[in-house]
Specification:
CATH topology of one domain: Arc Repressor Mutant, subunit A
CATH class of one domain: Mainly Alpha
Shape: globular
Order of helices and strands: HHHHHEEHEHEHEEEEHEHEHEEHH
Distance between the termini: 27 Å
Helix content: 40-55%
Number of helices: 13
CATH superfamily of one domain: Winged helix-like DNA-binding domain superfamily/Winged helix DNA-binding domain
Radius of gyration: 25 Å
Number of strands: 12
């Protein structure tokens, strides 16, 4: 949701929310304090702890929850000698109540910011799998109607970014292989293969590209599942489907640790292209992994109900900006026998055809981003 100080007539809001719905909401929706009571109790599942967080007495919290259930017409919680449990209806209610509470908090913060003269703001998340040039493109965008646009960038793992979007703490996010969700709008903007980091003296270093079969019986160093559950499970699933066995899976939280383990001859590491671009270590090289399914697909994601013109304008400008650095799918590089490092040619997919003979040196791609800025 973009924030602007320009006022909007009341009928704008009436057009977006039908008057019939507004009337129903005014009659039935509980106050924010009741919603917050349900959210906190659902988190704690204890009247004692929840009442303490809310600075209420236990009897006061109990009355608030009873009144909320009476107004809703269904049970949110069950109480017995064993404690508190949330019902299925309560679980569905609390999921939406969290969003309502967060939207209320954002309304106050955005209103205060507008009163203080802040004209526009976007909070944009991105995952560690994002190509650094995408971040450069995000930061280089200038919108004529929002000259003082305040961009707050936030890096996090994919599950946390999705949660941030759903909770309205993020306006947009660049996420690799996000989980499908009807509450989110996703637009694919790029894709690239995985890369395998190996020592320069490894038996596979002479190969230009690698397959899962090439990695049979090697010690695999893979990012931890909490970094990206979908991609982690995809690697494990593809190995099982291809009947490829591997040794002592080493889970890491960062590409830097993965490169260190490779350099110390612990094993071979799975990396995204972005991680390979950002990290370099003497004695270690990378090779593209050729597989029909193991691809890192990058999406720009927003909430499906976000009607912000600022966010839409920003996304359009961003997609236009990155056109010079994203080409249609081509054959992967390297094309010669020279070992390829992260700062050298990695894949032809992320470069225009006109530059295909010159490799995919990150410096040349950055130059193209700078040249593509509008006059």
């Amino acid at each position: 949701m973009g924030l602007t100080t320009r006022g909007a007539p009341a009928d704008v809001f009436k057009r977006r929310v039908p008057i019939r719905s507004m009337g129903l909401a005014m009659q039935t929706l509980p106050e924010n304090r009741y919603l917050l009571a349900a959210v906190i109790l659902a988190e704690e599942l204890s009247f004692t702890r929840a009442a303490k967080r809310l600075k209420l007495s236990q009897s006061g919290l109990s009355r608030r929850v009873n009144e909320l259930e009476s107004r809703c017409g269904f049970k949110l919680f069950t109480r017995n000698h064993a404690g508190v449990a949330i019902t299925d209806a309560g679980r569905a209610f609390v999921e939406e109540a969290k969003l309502s509470v967060l939207h209320g908090e954002r309304a106050i913060l955005f209103g205060r910011a507008a009163a203080g003269g802040v004209k526009s703001k976007l909070t944009i998340g991105h995952s560690p799998f994002v190509d650094p040039l995408m971040i450069t493109a995000l930061l280089s965008i200038r919108l004529p109607l929002h000259p003082d646009l305040d961009r707050h960038m936030q890096s996090d793992f994919a599950p946390e970014l999705v949660h941030g979007l759903l909770a309205s703490s993020l306006d947009l996010a660049l996420i690799a292989n996000p989980v499908a969700d009807r509450k989110l709008t996703m637009a694919k903007i790029a894709e690239a293969p995985f890369y395998i980091a190996i020592r320069d003296d490894h038996r596979l270093a002479s190969k230009k590209t690698l397959t899962l079969e090439d990695l049979r019986d090697c010690t695999w160093i893979v990012f931890d599942r909490k970094v990206h559950p979908i991609l982690h499970d995809m690697i494990v699933r593809r190995a099982k489907e291809e009947g490829v066995t591997y040794k002592n899976n080493q889970n890491v939280m960062s590409a830097e640790v993965a490169f260190q383990l490779v350099a110390e001859n612990v094993g071979i590491a799975f990396l995204s292209m972005a991680s390979a671009l950002r990290t370099n270590r003497s004695g270690v090289t990378v090779r593209p992994l050729v597989d029909k399914e193991l691809r890192v697909e990058l999406f720009i994601v927003s909430r499906a109900d976000d009607q912000s013109k600022l966010a839409s304008e920003f996304v359009r400008a961003f997609r236009k900006r990155i056109e010079p650095i994203i080409a249609p799918p081509q054959m992967m590089l390297p094309l010669d026998d020279t070992p390829v490092g992260p700062s050298e040619a990695l894949t032809a997919k992320h470069m225009p055809r006109s530059d295909s003979r010159g490799g995919t040196n990150p410096d040349s791609r950055r130059a193209r981003v700078r040249k593509s800025k509008p006059r």
